[in-house]
């Protein structure tokens, strides 16, 4: 049971002078002429068409599982040309196609834009993204994805976070609730559920019974690092073997304080500027090695690193060094 992505190309009208420049966006002019021709207006011979109230847009949507004709879905509208703002615009009828080229929904309606832009002669401000908007329930489903769930005899349960322990717990919990060997683990991300012979209820009723089972998922030991923002996220199962850690930085500060030297009153000479330079070196000599014992918990690890007086940037380097030494019992994922 999954969603299907839809995409379409359309026109937004009713913009207050913030649409595409037809000179810079020929596809907008061609689309506008084709739309007017379908409505019975011939503009093919007009060489001086000028309007900035129309914008070419790409419309995207997700078709939910089991969506039926007549259901409404949300759509996202994004500019394709040099339009500056979609506020006040109305999307014209736009077919939304699937990967197979078939039309599954049709979108139309006024666009809601969260961002805005304002400009003057000497300054401008932009909040959010005014060239992208959303139409709540803006598309009507015209075609459904055929899928007869009730006629199935076997289904696969796909785990969002693949894990051997979690998949095994799911299979055991289902077999215990149904009182039979109906579930089996194929791999860390898939559990197969087979409707047993003689089972009076349908597969849908079986799924309804098992979806209320409570499973405690098993999380892998992982450290996630975002080096750009200095964010570190560590799982509860992260463990560290016995290791000694020392952290220090060499800091050199050079301060220039020039001094003016003047001759005595009525004396001979001229005023000169004498350089004065102060050089200070801090090698963090007062810091010592810190011992992290074997099998410490996440809280002990954080407390030990904080006791060294280091920031997130240095902590990232230390965690990577501990991993390189083989003392960090977890995977490091750098975003």
TrEMBL record:
Keywords: Bacterial flagellum, Cell projection, Cilium, Flagellum, Periplasm, Signal
InterPro entries given in the database record: Flag_FlgI
Superkingdom to which the source organism belongs: Bacteria
Keyword Signal: yes
Main location: other
This protein's record includes keyword Signal: yes
Compartments, record wording: Bacterial flagellum basal body
Pfam families: FlgI
MF-aspect GO terms: structural molecule activity
One GO cellular component term noted in the UniProt record for this chain: bacterial-type flagellum basal body, distal rod, P ring
Signal peptide, first to last residue: none
Single GO biological process annotation from the record: bacterial-type flagellum-dependent cell motility
Family (UniProt): Belongs to the FlgI family.
Function in brief: Assembles around the rod to form the L-ring and probably protects the motor/basal body from shearing forces during rotation.
Assembly, per entry: The basal body constitutes a major portion of the flagellar organelle and consists of four rings (L,P,S, and M) mounted on a central rod.
Record protein name field: Flagellar P-ring protein
Organism whose genome encodes this protein: Iodidimonas nitroreducens
Primary gene name: flgI1_1
């Amino acid at each position: 049971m999954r969603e299907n992505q839809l995409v379409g190309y359309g026109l937004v009208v009713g913009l207050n002078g913030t649409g595409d420049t037809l000179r810079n966006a020929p596809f907008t002019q061609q689309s506008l002429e084709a739309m007017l021709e379908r409505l019975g207006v011939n503009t093919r011979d007009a060489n001086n068409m000028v309007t900035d109230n129309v914008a070419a847009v790409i419309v995207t949507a997700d078709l939910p599982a089991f969506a039926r004709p007549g259901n409404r879905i949300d759509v996202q509208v994004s500019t394709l040309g040099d339009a500056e703002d979609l506020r006040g615009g109305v999307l014209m009828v736009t077919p939304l196609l699937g990967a197979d080229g078939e039309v599954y929904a049709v979108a139309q309606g006024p666009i809601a834009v969260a961002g805005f832009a304002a400009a003057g002669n000497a300054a401008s401000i932009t909040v959010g993204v005014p060239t992208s908007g959303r139409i709540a329930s803006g598309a009507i489903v015209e075609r459904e994805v055929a899928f007869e769930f009730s006629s199935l005899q076997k289904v696969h349960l796909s785990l969002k976070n693949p894990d051997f322990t979690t998949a095994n717990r799911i299979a055991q919990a289902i077999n215990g609730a149904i009182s039979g060997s109906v579930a089996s683990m194929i791999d860390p991300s898939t559990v197969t559920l087979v409707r047993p012979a003689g089972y009076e209820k349908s597969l849908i009723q079986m799924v309804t019974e098992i979806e209320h089972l409570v499973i405690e998922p098993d999380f892998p030991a992982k450290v996630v690092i975002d080096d750009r923002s200095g964010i570190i996220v560590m799982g509860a199962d992260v463990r560290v073997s016995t290791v000694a850690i020392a952290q220090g930085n060499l800091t050199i500060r050079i301060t220039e304080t020039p001094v003016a030297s003047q001759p005595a009153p009525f004396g001979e000479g001229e005023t000169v500027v004498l350089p004065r330079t102060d050089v200070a070196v801090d090698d963090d000599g007062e810091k010592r090695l810190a011992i992290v014992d074997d099998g410490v918990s996440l809280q002990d690890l954080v407390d030990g690193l904080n006791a060294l007086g280091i920031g997130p940037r240095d902590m990232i380097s230390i965690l990577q060094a501990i991993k390189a030494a083989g003392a960090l019992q977890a995977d490091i994922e750098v975003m």
